[in-house]
Amino acid sequence: MRRYIDRVLQPGEIIVLVTRLHAIIYLRAVLLLIIALAFLIGSAWTAGQVQLGLEIAALIFALLAAASWVRAAIRQFTTELGVTDRRVIYKAGLFARHTLEMNRSKVESVDVDQSILGRILGFGTIIVRGTGGSLEPIRLIRDPLTFRSHITAG
Fold first, then answer.
1. Is residue 146's pLDDT more than 90?
2. C-alpha distances out from residue 20 to 6, 27, 34, 59, 127, Å
3. Pairing assessment for the beta strands 133-134 and 107-113 based on DSSP bridges
4. Which phi-psi region, left, alpha or beta, contains residue 40 (left: φ > 0; alpha: ψ -120 to 50)?
5. Confidence at residue 94, expressed as pLDDT on a 0 to 100 scale
6. What is the pTM assigned to this prediction?
7. CA–CA separation, 16 vs 21, rounded Å?
8. DSSP H helices in the chain
9. Contact 121, 115 (CB under 8 A)
10. Is 124 helix (H, G, I), strand (E, B) or coil?
């Protein structure tokens, strides 16, 4: 299956950079799984009704972790961010699709927001501001400084 960005290229347009969301979007799933494992380990040290309660809690948190992982995976694999020699392209969604495109010549500024953890792990939020409007914040993008550099370099 071809990427969205490949399908919307104009004749002669060249892709400069394609990126996706950072793997940090799986953090909630990992934390829920850790809680599930803690309940499961705790159930091994008990007996009777308490053990059953801890096992049920472990199962509930494991199911929540699985649902959170599936949601994050769908979000990561259906979000595309790209820079071509002419445009900035953003696409999100699987069935309901949200796309934004802006000519690079219309970009006034690109804001990058990174927390301390974002700087350490290499993720952040970007906001592309253009003449007459702006893109919404794109959160948890992988390597936002490189993305910004490719937008502003042209």
1. yes
2. 15, 16, 26, 31, 15
3. unpaired
4. alpha
5. 86
6. 0.86
7. 17
8. 4-7, 27-44, 48-78, 116-121, 144-152
9. no
10. strand
Q: Classify 55 as helix, strand or coil.
A: helix
Q: What amino acid is encoded at 96 in this protein?
A: A
pLDDT tens for each residue of 52-63: 999 999 999 999
Q: State both tokens at 46.
A: 């008990």
Q: Which two tokens stand for residue 20?
A: 């996706």
State how far the Cα of 121 lies from the Cα of 23, in Å rounded to an integer. Answer: 10
Hey, which residues does 81 pair with through a beta bridge?
19, 90
The CB density around residue 125, as the number of other CB atoms within 10 Å, is: 16
Q: Retrieve residue 136's tokens.
A: 């919404």
Name the band, by pLDDT with cuts 50, 70 and 90, for residue 131.
confident
Q: In the chain, what percentage of residues exceed pLDDT 90? A: 81
How many CA atoms within 13 Å lie on the side-chain side of 100? 18
Instruction: Extract the tokens encoding 26.
Output: 């799986």
